[in-house]
Amino acid sequence: MDLAVKLAEGFTGIFQAGGENLMGLVTGILPTLLVLLTFVNALIAIIGEDRVTHFSQKMTKFRILRYTLLPVMSLFFLTNPMCYTMGRFLDEKEKPAFIDACFSFAHPITGIFPHGNAGELFVWTGISSGITALGYSVSPLAIRYFLAGIIIIFIRGMVTEFLTRMIMAKSETKKEVV
């Protein structure tokens, strides 16, 4: 009987801890997140969706922008998972690399712009709470993480594009033989 009580208390304790964590988020990061999302949506409305679309089409012509600035802007303005829709401006051979770049940048953006991928916010808050507990600012870590993320998404985009083109070329060669 004592074991059953301890199990029940432990089970309930999990949900109590989850509730405390939720209240911490409601009074902490969530108001910031909501204001930031509202700001980004207002900015898109002010700039105009057509202008954002035209600008994105221009950016896809250059690899360095296609795998750095476009994924960053997509995650910032459209957030996850809408950011992947920006791949519509790309050639079929470039789409997998763009998606890979967006996937890879979904976490590094969270430290500076938490609205970019709210699903990763729990990971970032876990990391940053350790830094804060030591008495340090999390801003330098967030900036370094952001910059390292941009370098990584460029490398991943280039490698994935190369592999995609190679696989597609092999596939087209096999079709021609048959």
TrEMBL record:
Q: Name one GO biological process term.
A: phosphoenolpyruvate-dependent sugar phosphotransferase system
Statement: the UniProt record of this protein carries the keyword Membrane: yes
Q: Where are the transmembrane segments?
A: 22-47, 67-87, 142-164
Query: Pfam family example for this protein?
Result: EII-GUT
Q: Domain of life of the organism in this record? A: Bacteria
GO CC entries: membrane
Fetch the InterPro entries from UniProt: PTS_IID_sorb
Q: Which of UniProt's keywords are assigned here?
A: Membrane, Transmembrane, Transmembrane helix
Please give the name of this protein: PTS system, glucitol/sorbitol-specific, IIC component
State the organism of origin: Enterococcus pallens ATCC BAA-351
